[in-house]
Write a structure and sequence with these properties.
This protein is α/β, with parallel strands linked by helices and 504 residues long. Helix content is 31%, strand content 19%. It is elongated. One of its GO terms (cellular component) is membrane.
C-alpha cells in the first residue's frame, strides 16, 4: 500500500513540493520546545503506538521542532521538511504548532508501519481571524466538552473560539456584582434540558486551555435582545416579552412554550426580549458585566451581540448600542457586534462587525456591515447560508435547523468571503467564523455531527489562498476523505456525508 495521491492536508498549504519515497517513523525521537513536543505527542498518541523519546539535541532527533525565520516571515507561518528526518520551523510558537498539525495529517500507516512522505511545505494563513463558535447558552456544555471542541478545531488551524455565553434560555458565566444571574438563570437549557454555568475559575481554565492550542477566546454577552434570562434573575432590568404572531405560530409548530416574564424559557423563539433601554440601572449592569468579563479575558475582543432585537424600536436600539459599544471599548477591549449594530451611525470607532446575512445579501444587511469598515473597524464573515454549522446537511437530517439554508459540505466549501459585501475591500475582512448554535444539539456528539466535516471546509476557506490550484471542491473532497482514519481514531463523531469518498 502506498501513500494516497491526495494527501489529507486540510487546510491546504501555500506551497507543497513532494518527492519520491517516505521517511519511516520507527520511533518519535523529538527535540524542540516543550509545548510543541507535547502537542506532537498528544496528536500521535491517539493514532499510533510509536514510542516517544526526547532527544538530547537536534542532531540526535528524528523530528526537530524549532522557532525561527520562515520564507513567509509572517505570524503563524511555518516550514516543514521531510528528508532523512522531519524538521519543522515556525515563525512563532503558533506557526510551530500549526506545522505540528500538518505533520499529524501527513503521518500515514503503510504496510503496518508509520511513515511520512518526503515533502517540503511552506505555509502561512490567508486571514488573521479563523473562528469557530459554540453556543453554550441554548444548551450548556461543560469545561471538558469545550476542551474537546478546542482540540478538534485547533487541529484544523482555527485560532479563535467564540463562546456565546448568554441568551434567552440561560446565563452561563459567574458575575460577582450580579450573583442571581447564575443562581436563578442558569439551571435550564432549551427543551427543558439541564443547564449549568462556568465559575470564573472554569472560564479561566477554558481560556488557559485555548491559549495552549493557540486559540483566542472571544466571549459574547448578547445585548440588548436575547436577554430573557436576565429577567429571570433581575426582572427590573428587562421589558415584558413581545409576543408576535410569528412567535406564536412557531411555538405552536414546534410545540414549545411562549416566554413568560420572570420564568425560565425553554423554547427557541427569538426577538421577544430586551433590556430596559431607558433605565440608567441597565447601563450599570452592562458596565459591571462587561468589566468583569474583560478582566478574565486576555484576548483583545469583547462581543456584545446586537442581533435580532425585533421588539426594540430603531431609536432605542441606537441609543443602547451607541452606549454599549463605548462601554465595551472602555474596558480596553475591541468591541465586536453582529451586523445589525452597523445600522447605528455613532457606534464606537473601531468596532468589528460580524456579518451573518446571506452570501447574496438581503435587505440592508450589506449596508449595515459596510458601516463598521467606514467607522474604522473590520468584518468577520459568517454568511449564514454557508457557515452556520447548525443548519441541516439535508432535509431529512435529524439534527439542525433550515431557516438559513440546507447546507451540504459542497455548499459550505464553495463561497468567497471577500465577495459578499459590495464595496468593502478585501483587506477589511478580518477573517471568517463558523457558528454552531445549539438549539438542537443536546450532547457534544450531536455538536460534532453538525460541525464535522463542514468545519474542515471553513478552515480551508480561512487559511488557504482563494487562487490556489487545490482550492477546488474536487480536490477538497478527496483530501478531507483522508481525515476519516484520524477522526475515527480520535473519536470525532463526524457525519459521513455521501458527498465524500471516505477512506478507511
Amino acid at each position: 500500500m502506498a501513500f494516497p495521491e491526495s494527501l489529507p492536508l486540510i487546510p491546504f498549504p501555500t506551497s507543497v513540493r513532494r518527492a519520491e519515497g517516505a521517511l519511516a517513523l520507527t520511533s518519535a525521537r523529538v527535540n524542540g520546545p516543550d509545548d510543541a513536543v507535547a502537542a506532537l505527542r498528544e496528536g500521535f498518541a491517539a493514532r499510533t503506538s510509536l514510542p516517544f523519546d526526547s532527544a538530547a539535541s537536534a542532531d540526535d532527533a528524528q523530528i526537530v521542532l524549532q522557532v525561527g525565520s520562515t520564507s513567509a516571515g509572517t505570524p503563524e507561518s511555518y516550514e516543514l521538511r521531510v528528508g532523512d528526518r522531519v524538521e519543522i520551523t515556525g515563525a512563532d510558537e503558533a506557526g510551530l504548532f500549526y506545522g505540528v498539525q500538518t505533520l499529524r495529517q501527513l503521518a500515514h500507516e503503510v504496510d503496518g508501519a508509520w511513515s511520512v512522505p518526503h515533502i517540503e511545505i511552506d505555509d502561512a494563513p490567508r486571514f488573521a481571524y479563523r473562528g469557530i463558535m459554540l453556543d453554550v447558552a441554548r444548551h450548556f456544555f461543560g469545561v471538558d466538552d469545550v476542551k474537546r471542541y478546542i482540540d478538534n478545531a485547533s487541529a484544523l488551524k482555527y485560532n479563535h473560539l467564540h463562546l456565546h455565553l448568554t441568551d434567552d434560555q440561560g446565563w452561563r458565566l459567574q458575575i460577582d456584582a450580579w450573583p442571581l444571574l447564575t443562581e436563578k438563570a442558569a439551571s435550564s437549557s432549551a427543551l427543558g434540558d439541564e443547564g449549568g454555568f462556568y465559575t470564573k475559575d472554569d472560564y479561566r481554565e477554558i481560556v488557559r486551555y485555548a491559549a495552549s492550542k493557540h486559540m483566542v477566546l472571544v466571549p459574547e454577552v448578547d445585548l440588548p435582545g436575547h436577554t430573557h434570562a436576565i429577567g429571570v434573575a433581575y426582572p427590573e432590568l428587562v421589558e415584558a416579552p413581545v409576543i408576535s404572531d410569528l412567535l406564536i405560530s412557531e411555538g405552536e409548530r414546534l410545540n414549545q412554550p411562549l416566554p413568560v416574564a420572570g420564568q425560565v424559557y425553554t423554547g427557541w423563539g427569538v426577538g421577544h426580549s430586551s433590556v430596559r433601554i431607558g433605565e440608567e440601572r441597565t447601563y450599570d449592569f452592562v458596565r459591571d458585566v462587561l468589566t468583569e468579563v474583560a478582566e478574565i479575558t486576555p484576548g483583545p475582543y469583547l462581543h456584545i451581540g446586537g442581533d435580532e432585537s425585533l421588539g426594540t424600536t430603531a431609536e432605542d436600539f441606537a441609543t443602547f448600542v451607541t452606549r454599549a459599544t463605548r462601554i465595551a471599548a472602555e474596558t480596553g477591549k475591541t468591541p465586536v457586534a453582529w451586523h445589525e449594530v452597523g445600522a447605528v451611525s455613532d457606534i464606537a470607532e473601531g468596532t468589528i462587525g460580524q456579518y451573518w446575512g446571506k452570501v447574496t445579501p438581503e435587505g440592508s444587511h450589506a449596508e449595515e456591515a459596510a458601516h463598521f469598515v467606514a467607522r474604522g473597524g473590520s468584518l468577520i464573515m459568517s454568511a449564514s447560508d454557508a457557515t452556520y454549522l447548525d443548519m441541516k446537511y439535508g432535509a431529512d437530517f435529524p439534527l439542525g435547523l433550515v431557516w438559513a439554508a440546507i447546507i451540504n459540505v459542497q455548499k459550505a466549501y464553495e463561497w468567497e468571503p471577500t465577495a459578499v459585501v459590495p464595496g468593502v475591500p478585501a483587506e477589511a475582512i478580518l477573517g471568517i467564523e463558523a457558528p454552531l448554535w445549539s438549539e438542537t444539539t443536546r450532547t457534544m456528539a450531536d455538536v460534532e455531527q453538525l460541525v464535522f466535516p463542514r468545519a474542515a471546509a471553513h478552515a480551508e476557506t480561512a487559511w488557504s489562498a482563494a487562487t490556489a490550484p487545490e482550492r477546488t471542491w474536487d480536490s477538497f473532497r478527496a483530501r478531507v476523505a483522508g481525515l476519516a482514519p484520524a477522526w475515527k481514531a480520535e473519536g470525532v463523531n463526524f457525519y459521513a456525508s455521501e458527498e465524500i469518498p471516505w477512506q478507511n
